[in-house]
Amino acid sequence: MGEAKRRQQEGGPAPRKRSSKPVIFAGLVIVAAAVVGALYYLTLPPTPDSDSLPEVSEDTPAFPAQLDRYGISVGPENAEVVVREFADYQCPACASFAEASQKLKSQYVEPGKVRFVFFDLPLRQHTHAVPAAMAARCAGDQDQYWAMHDRLFAEQTRWGGSDNPGEHFSGYADELGLDTRRFDRCMASELHLEAIEDSRQVAIQLKIASTPTVLVNNIPLNSPHWGQLSAVVERELKEEP
């Protein structure tokens, strides 16, 4: 019997069931797209006019600018917007914020729009924080403060867990082209220890105890990261005459 006749007599092959896999896959794609879209909008940086940005009341006193001499400053002295950071070189959250401070310097400080002041606030539980602050200031004696500042945060996990962080600091000084003998003498003599303690006392006076604490003029950021920092800076720049 031919194949065609047999199919007619037997009713032909049973119809194939339609697979539900394409439908399930399409549904998963739609859900994934919705999740990605939601995350995108949730993680968009705030705009300068966003209601979510931190504010202070009009009668909040200005930051006592005379205290800036205890920090390390970069940018124009007469800048209308000043960003101040109180930080500990061994603090992981401070290392995370370091990228934002670098962007601040390149996008706002270098063009002359903003001044940035960094205050040392070494926490008692971080045994290498004071030597690290000393390394930055000793590098500053050779005009490489910010280069050492950035390097210390970038390499925090290396020297932070070392039994001899000084070896790392001396190595960074050499890589930055510093006079390492002068740098090592500065470190050994603890030349800048008093200045670091003076900076820490500023934080105590202002009742600042956590790091990083970041203020734009007199406005403390409640979530120190680039999105909030840049938005508040932009808002303050627009409000200045």
Automatic annotation (TrEMBL):
Residues annotated as domain Thioredoxin: 47-238
Keyword Disulfide bond: yes
Record flagged with keyword Transmembrane helix: yes
Record-linked InterPro entries: Thioredoxin-like_fold, Thioredoxin-like_sf, Thioredoxin_domain
Transmembrane segments: 23-42
Keywords, in A-Z order: Disulfide bond, Membrane, Oxidoreductase, Redox-active center, Signal, Transmembrane, Transmembrane helix
Family, similarity comment: Belongs to the thioredoxin family. DsbA subfamily.
UniProt protein name: DsbA family protein
